[in-house]
Amino acid sequence: MARKTITADEIRQTVKDENVLFLRLMFTDINGIVKNVEVPISQLEKVLNNKITFDGSSIDGFVRIEESDMLLFPDLDTWLLFPWENDHGKIARLICSVHRPDGSPFAGDPRNNLIRVVNEMKEAGFTSFNIGPEPEFFLFKMDENGNPTTQLNDKGSYFDFAPLDLGENCRRDIVLELEKMGFEVEASHHEVAPGQHEIDFKYADTLEAADNIQTFKLVVKTIARKHGLYATFMPKPLHGINGSGMHINMSLFHDKGNAFFDANTDDQLSETAMHFLAGVLRHAYALTAINNPTVNSYKRLVPGFEAPVYVAWSGKNRSPLIRVPQSRGLSTRLELRSVDPTANPYLAIAGILQAGLDGVTKKLKPEEAVDRNIYRMQDDERKANHIQDLPSTLHNALKALAADDVVKAALGKHLYQSFMDSKNLEWSAYRQQVSEWERQQYLELY
Fold first, then answer.
1. Fewest CB within 10 A of the end CB: N or C in the chain?
2. Residue 136 is a catalytic residue
3. Quick one: CA dihedral 166, 169, 172, 174, positive or negative?
4. Residue 309: pLDDT above 70?
C-alpha cells in the first residue's frame, strides 16, 4: 500500500477549499508519545519551507538546553484533515521529522532513525518492509471531573456484541473516523478481556505504518472522550485479565515480490524468511526492551494470559513468540506477538528490521518449529526444545539490550543512550515505590 504523493500546491488548495484554520505539526519523542506544535494557517508558507522552530530541550530524549533550537521538516505526504472540527474551524496535520538548525536530520528523532534503517535495508537489496499492526486498547469510564477511572464500560469478551459490548458504538465511531482519514480498516472486535478492543487496519510500508500507529492512537483517544470514555494503551491496566498487545505482522519485499515466499519449499517459506525469523529470535531479548518499554509491560508478559513469554516459533499455534500465519503468496508474513502498544513504533520497527536483516546477512537458521502449546510444557520439556523465557522485568530487558550490538546499532548512538537513560530512571523510580500488595503481604506478617 503506497502512500499518495502530495504537493505543496495541493495543500494550499485544500486549505483554501476546506477553510483550514490550524495546522498540527506532529512528531514523536523517545517514549513514543506524540507531540505537536499547533500553528495558525497564516504560518503555512513557513511550515512548507521548513522554518518552524521549537525548543528541543523540553522534549524527552532530545537535546541539552544549550543546543535546544530545532526545526520541523513536514512530510507533505502525511497531510491529513481531521474529520472533526473545533469552534474555530477545521484542523489539518502534518507529521514531521526533526532537524538541526543547519538543516541536517537530528539523530535523536525516532522517525529519522527509522528512515536511516530503511535506507540500509534498501542497500541490502530489498524494496520495502510491510507492517500490519494489531493494536489493542481498553475503554474505561471517566469520573465527573473527566478523569479516567478503572471502571470498565462493559462485560464483554472475545467477539461479543451488544448488549454485553457497550463499547460497540464507540468502536464503530472510531472505525468511521479512521476511514474518513484514509485508513482501510480490515476488522474491529471486542477482545478477550472486559472493556478491551482491537481494530486492525491494512498493512503499509515501514514509515507509513509507524505514522499510522501514532495517528490511530490519537483518533482512538479523541473519539473515546466524545463518548465519555477514556481509552488507554497501557499493557496491563487491571490484575487478573488479559493485557493489551500490538502484534506486528511483517513481510520483506524485493523487486520480484514477497521475499518471504518460495513456492518450491515444503512450507512455501523462503530461505530469506527463515533467516529473518532466526535473526528476530536471536535478538529477541534485546528487542524486548524496545517492544515492551515500560515497567507495566512485564505484568502482561506472564504465562496464562495469552501473551507470549517463550522464545520460539510455530506455524500452527499462538503460544510462541513468532507465529507464521497460513497465508502464502503476497500475504506470506511473520507475526511477532510480544510487542505491546506502549512501544515507540519507529524504534520497535527499526529494531525488528535490523534484527531480521542481521539474520539474513549471517544466514542464521532458527530452531525447529514448536507446534505444541508451550504453556503446557514442563520446564524440562522447554529446555529440551531449547525454549528460553523472554526477560521478566524492564531491568533485565535493558541489560539484554546493553549487550546486543545489533539492536543498539538499530537505534544509533544518540537514541540508544537517550532510551537507556529514560528507562533506567523509570526502573529506579519503580524500585523505590512500595505497593499496596507489599503492604498487604508483609505489614502484619513481619
1. C
2. yes
3. negative
4. yes
Helix H, strand E, coil C: the string for 274-332 is: HHHHHHHHHCHHHHHHHHCCCCCHHHHCCCCCCCCCEECEECCCCCCCEECCCCCHHHC
Assess whether pLDDT exceeds 80 at residue 180. yes
User: Which residues are bridge partners to 40 per DSSP?
Assistant: 22
Cβ atoms of residues 91 and 25 within 8 Å: no
Give 396-430 pLDDT, tens digit per residue. 999 999 999 999 999 999 999 999 999 999 999 99
Nearest-Å Rg of the Cα atoms of the chain is 22
pLDDT above 80: residue 193: no
Residue 282 is among the residues annotated as catalytic for this protein: no
- CB-based contact 109:98 (threshold 8 Å): yes
Annotated catalytic residue 143: no
Q: Which of 197, 300, 337, 395 is catalytic?
A: 337
* Contact of 280 with 355, CB cutoff 8 Å: yes
Give tens-digit pLDDT for 349-383: 999 999 999 999 999 999 888 877 787 777 888 88
Instruction: Exactly one of 29, 109, 134, 404 is catalytic; name it.
Output: 134
Q: Which of 24, 93, 111, 136 is catalytic?
A: 136
Active-site residue flag, 64: no
What percentage of residues in the chain have a pLDDT greater than 90?
Answer: 63
pLDDT score recorded for residue 85: 67
Residue tagged active-site, from 120, 205, 335, 371: 335
Pick the catalytic residue from 111, 197, 247, 323. Answer: 247
pLDDT at residue 158 in the model: 44
**Catalytic residue chosen out of the listed positions 318, 386, 431, 439:** 318
Stated pTM of the model: 0.92
Closest CA to 165 of 191, 136, 137: 191
pLDDT at 442: 96
How far from the centroid of its chain's Cα atoms is residue 72's Cα? 22
Known catalytic residue: 436? no
Residue that the C-alpha cell 530461505 belongs to: 271
User: Is 247 among the residues known to form the active site?
Assistant: yes
Cα–Cα distance for residue pair 24/86, rounded to 1 Å = 13
Residue with cell 515501514: 206
Smallest CA-to-CA distance from 333 within 121, 198, 132, 124 is with: 132
Contacts of 73 (CB under 8 A, 6+ apart): 50, 96, 97, 98, 99
- 335 a catalytic residue: yes
